[in-house]
Structures are given as structure tokens and as C-alpha cells.
Amino acid sequence: MKYKTIKYLSLLLFVFGTVFLAQSQVKESSLWGANGVNWDPAGRLPDFSYAGYKSSNEPLPDIPIVSNLSTTGAIPNDAIDDSAAIQSLINQQASLPRNQRGAIFIPKGTWVIDNPLLLNISGVVLRGEVDLNGKPLTTFYFPDATSSTTGYHISMSGSFKRINIGSVQSDVSQGLNQFNVTAGNTLSVGDFIQLEQKDPADESLSSYLFGNIDAIGASTKDLSIYPTIFTWYAYVTAVNGNTITFDRPLPIEVRTTWSPYIRKMNMDTTISEMGIENISFVCNNSEAFVHNIYRGFKILQLNQVINCWVRNVELVDLEYGISIRGKSCYNTISGVVIRDEKRNIPLPPVEPKSTFIYRMKQQAGGGHHPLEVYQGYYNLFEDFEFKEIHWHELTVEGTAAFNVFRKGKGVAIAFDNHRNFPYANLWTNIDLGRPERMWWNSGSNQIGVPGRERGPNCGFRNTYWGITYKNIVPDIEIEPAETDGFSYLNYIGVEGARKQSSPIDKVNSQLVEVSGVGEWIAQPDLFLAQLERRTTNPLSTDDFVKNTTFVKLHPNPAEHEFSLEFKKLGKVTVNIYDVFGKLVYFKVTNDNLLVKNNGVFKSGLYLIKVGTDDNRFYYSKLIIK
């Protein structure tokens, strides 16, 4: 499991919370509850635990080294362009079998990158050298802007190859994981699929994703991303004719009026398993950033790739840092330090609130978009630190959804929902530094100006969870939740947060909890809490006690009713959970039990857990037809 220390961390957090309780209040969210007991896969809180490399089911791999830049004759610190030598080592691996590819080691020193690098071969990693503390000793130095200010110095890039399967044949409720698909019988267990839905002429899908409160922007409808504004990926776990079961619940509804279509991702040709590690990326840029005026220092993009990663890197004097684009999914960006070296952009001085917040928003100067997702899904950014202020530190834009930013800190971080229809993203366990820029969302929405009518900042179900700020300016509180979008915002455990009093639906739809003085959310990192709950769900394993002697279940599969017979167990507690771990049935009894299905049990797999007074437990898998 990716986070082997989750249980220990949870224990420490519990102990800490118990000690701290004397001075403050540790509270649960109504959306989650202790250990996620309140969570509803059909509710307003998405399951973000699938974000990251391989849905965060596995740790980032340690790929063996197969080549070394020093063998090419390239020399560090000589101010000569090294991009051709590095590109040649990347290209050489294209002819190797997949299992013979690996990491290209780039020794310590400064290597000049004066031409774009393309990393487009699955299984290839660029790895720098580190000191004893893990700090990168390898530097990629960009002396000049790229020839085109729209290009990136380094691209991890591919081109999705998909196999058409068919349309979803009937509406499917949110929270379910089973569809009837035209030609679904051509799928197999283990296939990785993409489900997409399109906004119809009546704009009902975009309206739904705006909480039926806002409308999509006219300029967004002119973009190539429109009308396909919902994209979702999952693995096939069962095939029964044209009925397909997937490994995760639907995060929204499927409606046939939204043209839901299933494609199988061709993972033999999709670019994946690429990485960049242990490198400082330094731009020759001493100029403070002026909004939308570029010199061309855009460091790295991930475009149409799956299950890739960037870890333990520094981004120095950037204009753009790391950008995930092109429907890329399940990528992890971990351990990023963003700092200025040639530039020195100080924090604005403390001023009266009326002018200070405006200055804090407008006078960033450190770069435009250090970390962003444009039309990407279930990507994970973690362990990041901003040493200075940038224009928009953390950005989602252009139908980006279900991405996670966690465990980060900065001096005055802005959570930037940049219009063109992002929705349902998570920010959790982040120390803002100074809080005044949290709601500095940008992206123009100039009504009547062609190309600038991008609509509200975001759609529904954005989640801000466990957000703190320790470098507090006296007498300045965090601003209220905005009203430009943000319908059904989950605003949980945000220190000192409060909701506007304006009586409009998009504000009244927002849920603000655990935000008063001295209140703390019991799970400060929602991503970790959801991941722990999902990966420790007994239904995820086959390690069940053989229970036919003491507990008999029949019939199985069942439809309208089923019975449980207990032998020599005395009083028992019966808990029945659905495949996502939600408790759907509870009973304490001394007798055998007949359970009638009065609509509680939908078709699918369930876990029956029978507990005794002497702490013995017996498990059974139940199938409802």
C-alpha cells in the first residue's frame, strides 16, 4: 500500500487530538464522521482517494538505472547545450523492450537545456543526483526563453489511443459502479476504460455540474474541450454479458441524454510509467512577472499521459512550472520546492485591510502558474512548498476535476479556480502562510467580450478541508467563500472561515463546518482519511474467516431475501456493508435472521460482518442479483 504509515499517523493524530482537546474542540464533519461512517458515494463529497499514480494503490516505483549522461561526452558546468545528449539517451530506449527500459542517471552539476526535451517513451525516467539529505545536486539550466512562448522546455507527452466500445444504455445513479454498455461483452476484467459525457444543446450537463445554479460561459463553449466536459477512468472488475462492473463508484450521474460513451484505453500504446526525479530546474529569469507578458520560461508539462510522476524537484525563477494537460490522469507530483533565486519579490507590508488584500492579490510578481491542471483528472500534488508569492500558486482550469492538492505550505497561497469549468477538486492539509489570497481566483469573465466569457470560476463540489494559516497578519481574517461559482462548496475545517450572508442559492448551497475559533477537524487530511478507509475495506481482500461452521448464508446469490443461521454464537451484531464500505444494514440479535430486501440492497457485492460478545468476527460475501 502506498502509505504504509497511515495507521500509525492516524493513531498519532488521535493521541494529539485527545491531548489538545482540553484547549480546543476536535470535531467531525457531517459529510465524513468517524472513520468515514457518514460518507455517502451518492452525496456531495467526492471520493478523492483515487488521485495519483495508479490510483494511489501503489507507491512510486524505484526504477533501475540503465544509462548515464556522462557516457555521451557531455560535461557539466561547461555552459554548452546538453539537450541533444540527453535527448539521444531518451530516444535510444525506444528500441528496447519495455522491461529493459529504465532510468537515465544525470550526475551532479549544471546541465544547459537550450532546446526542448521530449520524454515520450513509457518506462523512461530522468534521475538526478542528491546529497545526503536528499537535496538535488543536478541542475537543468534554461539560459534563454523557448522559441515559442507557448512551448515548454520539457514535455512528458503522449497521444491517447482508445478502442471504441459503446454507449451506456440507461441512466445510472451516482455512487453505483455497474452499467449496461453496448458491446460491453467485448471488455475483459482488468481493462482500463474511459467514460465521457457531452453537454447537449439544452446545456443540462453543464448546468448539473454547476449545481443547477450557474451557466457555462459562452467562450468556454468555443473551446476544443467543449462539449465533452466530463471524463472518468476506471478498471473493469466483472463482465456479465453487456453488464459491466467497475472498481470505483461513479462520482456523478450518467444520463443517456448526455451521450455517455465507453472506450477502452490501449495501455500498450498509451504513454505511462515515466518519471522525473531529483533535479533543480533553474530559469535565467531575473524579471518580476507581469501578468500575461512572457519571456518563455515554462518548465514542464505532462500531456496525455497516465501513471507518471515528478518527485523531489525544485522550480526556480519560473513563469510556468508544472502543468498537467490533455486529459492526463493518475499522475503524482511529489516533493516540489518553488523558489526565486535571481528575483526577490518581498511580501507586501502590513496595511489596512481595505488596501492590503487588494495589494496581496495584484502584486505577486514571482511567476504565473507554478502548479496547474488544465483538463486533467485524479492527479495528485503533494509535499509542495512555495518560498515566495506567485500570481496563482495552485490552479485548476478547463474541466479539471477530482484532482488533489495536499500537504503543502507557502507564504500566501492562492487557490485558483481559473474558469473554463473546473469542478470537484480538493485542497487539504495546507498551510496558507498569510491567508488573504486564498480566494484569489482569476481567469477573465468579461461579458460581451469574445474569447473572455469564461463563466464562473468553478462548478460544484469543490472541497477545502483542513486549511490553516500560521503567519497571521493582525486583525485580518480569512475572506468569506466567494459567490462566483462555488455551488455546493464543502468548506470544512478552514480556520476562521465564515459564509457570506447574502441570501442567494450558490452561497446557501455551501456547507461550512468546523471553522470557529478553537475548532479543529478530526481528519486534517481528507485524502489520507479517504485512502485509509478505501484500502482497509475488508471487501478489497479475500482474507475472510471460513465461517460455514458457525454462520450459514443462503441463498447466495440472493434477490428478494436471504437468511443467516448462527450456531453456538449467542448474541451477535450483524453489519452489512456495500462495496464502498458504507453501512447499509445493522442488527443485534440472539436468533437466526431473515433479511428482506426492501430496496436497501441494490444489485452488487456486499460484506456481511458478524461479531460476537467475545470479539470474534465472521465474514461473508453476499451477492444481490
TrEMBL record:
Keyword vocabulary terms for this entry: Signal
One Pfam family of this chain: Por_Secre_tail
Secretion system C-terminal sorting domain boundaries: 554-624
Tell me which InterPro entries the record gives: Pectin_lyas_fold, Pectin_lyase_fold/virulence, RHGA/B-epi-like_pectate_lyase, Secre_tail
Which superkingdom is the protein from?
Bacteria
Q: Residue ranges of the Rhamnogalacturonase A/B/Epimerase-like pectate lyase domain?
A: 68-158
Spell out the coiled coil positions from the record. none
Q: What is the official name of this protein in its record?
A: Secretion system C-terminal sorting domain-containing protein
